């Protein structure tokens, strides 16, 4: 018998759910799930927090709204005996290389990292503070950058003046780390081989897109950088451009730095090239023979190949190439496009496997032909489950 809610009887631990929260500046995504089984009892999003005309004034009100929504779905938060709350935090900066149990000091350190993630970290702190007042259980922060804290210096260092970089913690951090880590473990399971033996390239292609090179389970390269703007072409983000573009736009077009930042983050990528950022709409346009859509897909795939080639050079050998996230799991066109012409590198996609069920993959699946040098796989990501498991690992 143990009445302390922080240290419940371990025998009933595995039944109890973890609440995973992802607080943005005006939204709160939530999922209630049991980490061991992965069983989800509820999930959703509270939107328009703090916006004019919204009923939800702040993150505390958002938690009340979530509680009411859960009750509507038949889930009584007081009755489920919550084990812990896991918070997704975008930027762990140089400080956090692993998930941590949250205390006042951790909150202050996440807040102090705000210059590195001015949109994300203050929102995360607001969400964490509200949730700590609301739920008297352990809270854990899981950082999107943590998996990439292992990048070697030659991969994380930008060739800018050293003093400046050191003073402001300017380096490649990488993002989507929870997904890259989860997927690289799941792909090893799919192959029935220890992750320590595998060289992997993981392509997380969703609204945001990132690639990583993983040797023996340890990340050695990734395409996102100081911010999530670097690397692959994304829904609304440009990915790589000539860094000289900023000066050009400032001098020649008279754009301010905020305007350039907004344009590259919100109005570029697939949206900038075609007017739509959703791959489903892009696919329809491709089917209709739209030329702007064709070019956008070609640019998207060209950039992917660029990174796969670079990561082959860094790894020396790729055993597994994994697609994940909304586009990676649902677009056979992108997967076939990447493999096209890469036979010489041992990378090939079997058309029947790639296009089975309309190309929509819901379970880890191999799509390369039998006997391929590189196993090409599609592995659905599940960041909430990964956060719930990492949270449970820290509080048991
Ligand atoms: P994510 O960020 O992982 O949720 O991925 C979101 C993106 O996945 C959407 O913007 C779509 O572009 C893409 N997506 C989702 N479902 C499909 C589908 N059935 N076919 C093609 N793309 C899809």
Task: Describe it.
With 396 residues, the protein is of the alpha/beta class. The chain has two domains: 131 residues, Nucleotidyltransferase, domain 5, CATH 3.30.420.40; 192 residues, ATPase, nucleotide binding domain (Nucleotidyltransferase, domain 5). It is 39% helix and 16% strand. It has 15 helices and twelve strands. The strands form two sheets. A six-stranded mixed β-sheet has the order 3-2-1-4-6-5, sandwiched between helices. Strands 9-8-7-10-12-11 form a six-stranded mixed β-sheet, with helices on both faces. The longest helix is centred in the C-terminal third of the chain and has 25 residues.
Shape estimate: globular
Order of helices and strands: EEEHEEHHEHHHEEEHHHHHEHHHEEH
Averaged pLDDT, please?
95
Share in helix: 25-40%
- Are any ligands bound, and if so which? adenosine monophosphate
Structural class: alpha/beta
**Main pleated-sheet profile:** 6 strands, mixed
CATH-assigned fold name of the largest domain = Nucleotidyltransferase, domain 5
Total E-strand runs: 12
Assembly state (oligomeric): single chain
Instruction: Give the C-level CATH assignment of the largest domain.
Output: Alpha Beta
Please describe the structure with a list of short key phrases separated by commas or semicolons.
binds adenosine monophosphate, 6-stranded mixed beta sheet, 396 residues, Nucleotidyltransferase, domain 5
